[in-house]
Amino acid sequence: MYGPRMLLGPQGSEPRSTxxxxxxxxxxxxxxxxxxxxxxxxxxxAVNPAWIPQPAQSGTYRTELAWSGDSGSASAIxxxxxxxxxxxxxxxxxxxxxxxxxxxSYTPDLGVFHAVTGLHGDLMIPEDRLKAAVVKxxxxxxxxxxxxxxxxxxxxxxxxxxxxxxxxxxxVRWLHHVV
Length: 179
Known about the structure:
alpha+beta; eight-stranded mixed sheet; 8 strands; 30% helix
């Protein structure tokens, strides 16, 4: 009939290798080893990032970790780190032939922002979210510009921009998911 069945990767699906970057913009020193353990748990490989002082907030540190792994790793990293007080981070995942890319941003005050990204890094906003923004604006609950800003992650960008700028020129370490 259909020939022999091939099992492709875990749970019958083919692994989808991708890569991305974790930007820890600010973390107190006591939190740094916990971040390393959480990321290592997701990627299945020990991480040993170069933590450097974050000049935008005294007593905190920053690092950048380039990683490679299965599709969805950025989501797993963001889930492992979300909710930690005094932590600010972003994690990106490049798109593949079979999956969209992703961007996650986190601040203690705003929580998690998630956006799907396209091939060139542009945010891809689903039609239903745009329609909901127009309806909210039409009802007078908010302005259309305010809703579009939220859809684009502007509040997160505004809060993280100081930390991003302070970290320019920081070293990047490459990590690889262990299969």
